[in-house]
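Q: How would the structure tokens look for this protein?
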Amino acid sequence: MSVKDPVKYTVDGRSYTTIPLTGRDSIRLDKMVTPIVFGLGSVSKKLSQGDIALLLCEKMGNLPEEKFEEIRRLTFRGTMFDGSDNEKSISLEGDECYNHFEGRLIDMYNVMVAAWEAHKLTPFRMLAGSSTEGTA
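A: Here is the predicted structure in token form.
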């Protein structure tokens, strides 16, 4: 398995780093996320990262809990909140994710979208050159 270069991005003024998935995990996440993102209508419209995150609130909220958890775990595998003066750096892969995003569900979805871009999932490769590129 090869390791890809980490991707750094900022969401709502907070810094995150994602090491893109490789191999089986990459394919599994892509297979799960692609129909969700395409189901948002983002193929025909050029949606911003924020628009996609808003639409995800409903879509992800309707998923069975096990499916949501699998997507969340794979999405945040290799993703870190880079910390600040007031907060320590943490991995978002485990349950610390819930404490980090407590009261900020839309921020979790914005970070998910940014991580999906970092993982170079199919919808974001297909939308290259649209308004989602470079917003992470």
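Helices lie at 23-38, 49-61, 65-76, 96-100, 105-118, 122-126.

The longest strand covers residues 7-11.

Upvote if useful.
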